[in-house]
Amino acid sequence: xxxxxxxxxxxxxxxxxxxxxxxxxxxxxxxxxxxxxxxxxxxxxxxxxxxxxxxxxxxxxxxxxxxxxxxxxxxxxxxxxxxxxxxxxxxxxxxxxxxxxxxxxxxxxxxxxxxxxxxxxxxxxxxxxxxxxxxxxxxxxxxxxxxxxxxxxxxxxxxxxxxxxxxxxxxxxxxxxxxxxxxxxxxxxxxxxxxxxxxxxxxxxxxxxxxxxxxxxxxxxxxxxxxxxxxxxxxxxxxxxxxxxxxxxxxxxxxxxxxxxxxxxxxxxxxxxxxxxxxxxxxxxxxxxxxxxxxxxxxxxxxxxxxxxxxxxxxxxxxxxxxxxxxxxxxxxxxxxxxxxxxxxxxxxxxxxxxxxxxxxxxxxxxxxxxxxxxxxxxxxxxxxxxxxxxxxxxxxxxxxxxxxxxxxxxxxxxxxxxxxxxxxxxxxxxxxxxxxxxxxxxxxxxxxxxxxxxxxxxxxxxxxxxxxxxxxxxxxx
Length: 478
Fold this sequence. Notes:
Layout: E1 2-13, E2 22-32, H1 39-43, E3 46-50, H2 52-55, H3 61-65, H4 68-71, E4 76-81, H5 106-109, H6 132-144, E5 148-153, E6 157-159, H7 164-167, E7 197-199, H8 205-222, E8 226-229, H9 237-250, E9 254-257, H10 264-267, E10 271-273, H11 275-285, H12 291-304, E11 310-313, H13 318-324, H14 327-331, H15 335-344, E12 348-352, H16 378-391, E13 403-406, E14 415-422, E15 425-432, E16 438-441, E17 449-453, E18 464-467, E19 472-476
Parallel strand pairs: 3-4, 3-12, 4-5, 5-8, 8-9, 10-11, 11-12
Antiparallel strand pairs: 1-2, 6-7, 13-14, 14-15, 15-19, 16-18, 17-19
């Protein structure tokens, strides 16, 4: 959205006579609230995933908008809003295994709101959340607070109520009987189980034009700053490569792919998901892997990706929380060390709705639920990490990321230590990523000071340290 400023540009003579009164004319000039998204802004960004349905008891745009200014305290620069569109009723999910058609009681059916990812109208708004005017207010408030807003975009499939199923059946993948089908696993030909959606067929190039136009609508009409693309790798890369330049012609946009496919980064997406790194963090926290697995992973991505590719780091998101478990379920006492790790490594960290409030429950996915709103351990930790992320070049994580250098310790299977440096600044992360106490040697600069974590940490003359289980510290030289 844009603010309006009134400028006095001159006078209008109402009559030819010199003695006639003159009237001031107000001319409207548009002024940008926030500069278009740039890589410089993304270098120090924190992303917040907003689950509008579950964020508040009301489950509305307005309720979320009220809290946007608080997110500045966490260093949030990008707000990713989960799908905002109307949800199909046909074949709507009631549970992971049942549709509402399987529920006989009509009153019982009403509580099942369906999956956000079963889109019935790409240019519509889910009435549960409010109106388009409410969304505009959310975007304007975010911009006023120095934050960008990206929408979750579901290009791979639609819900079964989408008008294209009748108007353009050729847009859909069909079986031998000519019937649209739900998405299939290309490796096996079997259903993924996403029975509440119909798979789109990108062999049809007319679909490319229509889908791109639907995305352009939100930028042109509602000043959206980009998109998070759901299952981006299931849609042909060539589609994204032709769509994104058209979006960029309107204004610079930020594109996040739910994928690790490096081919998507060449000409379409800015950032992908760090799924593999996330799973390794889970495995280490659960005692199924050691720090050696993390070191191997960092070597792998260093050779797999181009220098300006980068990934989103997280300990939770909507999928992980609802289907795999809460942060505490998966990571237990390692949670704080792993959160600190997501901020310290190259890339951009993510906060999911409720994480900042120590949410220790799995949010219901197809029904109304609500996150807690009590600040406990995580809020001050995320606030402190956000401060460092947004102020230190040594934690830059986008196309011009700070360097990552592994520091050798005498216990490298248990202790992860590395430094990040850029523009003369340094940040060091040291953690015992095991459930046992550990003593180790590590050479550190004398001028480093603890910023967050083990606050009694001191640089020792003999460079020998003792850390308890999952104990960590982040050090700075500034």
